[in-house]
Amino acid sequence: RSRKRLTYEQALQILRDDNLDNIRALPLPPAHQTGSTGRALSSLTDSELHELQGALRHFWGIAKVLRARRFKDGALDLEIPEVRIYCDANGYPDRIVKESGDESHWFIEEFMLAANEAVARVLFEAKMPALARVHEAPLAPKLEAFCDFCAQFDITPGDLSVRKHVIALLHQIREHPQAYVLRTEFLKSMQKACYKPEPLGHYGLHKKHYLHFTSPIRRYADLVCHRVLDNYLIRNNLPTAPVGGHPESYSMSRLSTIGRHISATEAESAQAERESRRNKLLEFFERQAAAKDKQHFPAIITDIKNHGLFLELPDHTVFGYLPASSLTDDLYILAGDGLSLTGRKTKRVLALGDRIEVTAFRVDRFKRQFDFHLAPQAK
User: Cα 24 from chain centroid?
Assistant: First the structure.
C-alpha cells in the first residue's frame, strides 16, 4: 500500500524544505543505480506533496523522541560514516560519497529498532523460542588494549567497564581528527554480534530483548522470527493471525544450529562486501592516477617517517602513503620527536594531524596499496 517510494536524499529535502519547487527539482537517481521510485516528484500535485511532507514530518517527530530516549537510556552511538561508491552504466566507479547519518536515515532506524524490540519482547516473554540478535559485553583484555591505543592520541578513556564512561569516550572522540580510526578500533574491541536462541541482550543498543525482524529480504533470521510470530498469533487465536500461517515451532537445538550457521554466513557476507568495496576503491584511484586532469582529495597525516607520510583520506575511508621522494620542492628533515617533516630551505612543516590535499599517483592492486602526491597548489 505504498503511496510513494523515496530516496534518502528526497526524504531529507521534503523534511527540511518548505519550497515545493525545490523538492520537485530534485533529480531522479540513474536507472542503473536504483529500482523504480514510481512517479517523479515533479509530477506530484501541491496537495500530494503537502500530504507527503506532513506524514514524513509527523513521523520524524515521533522518531526524534524515540532517538533521544534511546541514547538517554544508555544506547551507544556507534555510527561510522559510510562510503557509498557509485558506478556508471558500465560498472566503473565514478563517484565516491561519504554519507553520514541524518534525519532520513535516523527516521527509518528508530522505527526498525522499535519493531525489532517489540517483537522480541512479545516472543521471549511468551517463552517462545526465537533467534535473538545477541551482542555481549566486551571482554576486559580487549578494552585494556583499546585504552592503550587511546593513550597514543593523548586520550584518557576512563573505566570502560562502566557504561557512562564508554558514552563519554565516544563523545570525546567524535570530533577528534582521528575519529574514524578511533571509532573503528573501538568497534574492534567489541564482541561480534551473532544469532542465538537465548536473549542474552544487546550491549551496543542497551536492550534486554532484541532480534532481527524487519528485513526478511536480506536475512534468514528475520524470516525465522516472522514464522515464530505467526505461530504465536495462531496459538493465541488472535484476529491478526495470518491465514495459512506458519504453525511450526522451533526447538532450541534447531535454533542453535540455525544461529551458528547464519552468524557464520553473515561474517562471510560482510567480508565479501569489504573486499568488493576495496576492489572498487582500488579501481577508482587507479583510474584517478591515470587521469590527466587529476582530482584533489583532502587527507590527514596520520604517521610520519623519514621516508614519507602515512595518510588517511577521511572522505573515502582510504589509507595511503606519500613518499618523501615526491616532495621535490625542498629537502625535508624529520624532527627529533618524529612528529613532523620540515623543509630545509622553505621551512615548510608537514606535521602529524595536518590536513593536506593530495592526488592519486599509483595503485598496487597486488599489495592493495595507495600512493599519493601532494596536490600541485599545495606544494
Answer: 29
Rounding to the nearest 10 degrees, give the CA dihedral for residues 173, 177, 179, 185. Answer: -100
**155 exposed, middle or buried (CB, 10 Å; 0-12, 13-18, 19+)?**
middle
In angstroms, the CA 223 to CA 195 distance is 13
Q: Strand, helix or coil at 243?
A: coil
pTM: 0.83
CB-CB neighbours of 91 under 10 Å = 10
pLDDT tens by residue, 206-249: 999 999 999 756 789 999 999 999 999 988 888 888 877 666 78
**What SS3 state is found at 242?**
coil
Smallest CA-to-CA distance from 130 within 209, 206, 192 is with 209
Closest Cα partner for 6 from 103, 113, 145, 148? 103
- Assign 3-class secondary structure to 159-215: CCCCHHHHHHHHHHHHCCCCHHHHHHHHHHHCCCCEEECCCCCECCCCECCCECCCC
Phi, psi (degrees; rounded to nearest 5) at 204: -65, -45
All cell numbers assigned to 376: 600541485
Integer Cα distance of 368 and 320 in angstroms? 10
Distance (Å) of CA 362 to CA 86, 255, 315, 323: 21, 49, 19, 11
The amino acid occupying position 189 is S
H-helix or E-strand containing 340?
A: strand 340-343
Per DSSP, what are the bridge partners of residue 309?
304, 322
Which of 223, 7, 229, 221 minimizes the C-alpha distance to 108? 7
Instruction: Report pLDDT digits (tens) over 122-145.
Output: 999 999 999 999 999 999 999 999
Cα 247 from Cα 345, distance rounded (Å): 80
How many other C-beta atoms lie within 10 A of the C-beta of residue 334? 15
Provide the CB-side half-sphere exposure for 10 (13 A, CA).
Answer: 19
Asked if residues 225 and 231 have their Cβ atoms less than 8 Å apart, the reply is no
